[in-house]
């Protein structure tokens, strides 16, 4: 309210002319004119007061809105910092995953090379086995058959020798019996 009265006085002072010259005698303004002027000043002061109050309300509303926006900006700032931290963590995880993938790819390549080597060794071994089978089929059965034939011959010879030994044994026994009889005869004759 003091501000309004200060504005009114300023307005009035601005409206009054100040002369630097000597004071002249002037007639006093009629009371009616002064009342009209005072009424105008009162209306002006009420209008200024209304403008002041609406301006003050608008400034309060703008201040409240600014504080709200400031809070929102701070919240967005914190969310941005959190998002930046999450993004950093995601990048670190991605780098870790890429490193693990590279390691797994190297291990996979090593395992694949090892399996390829084993497959080649398997093919070589199968080739060697086939060659050995072919060799055995072509050369060994003849040798085995020859060995079987020889074994049969030796078996037959051994069988013949057994018979011969048996025959010789029987001959010896017969000769032994005959000698015994001859000895008994010779003793009986003597």
* Mass-distribution shape: rod-shaped
Q: Are there runs of 5+ residues with pLDDT below 50, and where?
A: 16-21
What share of the residues does DSSP label as strand, in percent? under 5%
Radius of gyration: 70 Å
Number of helices: 3
Number of E strands? 0
How far the N terminus sits from the C terminus, by CA atoms, comes to 191 Å
Largest sheet report: none
Overview of the molecule:
With about 190 residues, the protein is an all-alpha fold. About 90% of the residues lie in helices and about 0% in strands. The chain has three helices and no strands. The chain has helices spanning about 1-15, 30-140, 140-190. The longest helix has about 110 residues, at about 30-140. It is rod-shaped and about 220 Å long. It starts with a helix and ends with a helix. The relative contact order is 0.03. The model is unreliable at about 15-20 (pLDDT under 50).
Give me the secondary-structure topology:
Elements: H1 2-15, H2 31-138, H3 140-189
Helix pairs in contact: 1-2
Summarize the structure.
The protein has 190 residues and is mainly alpha-helical. Helix content is 91%, strand content 0%.
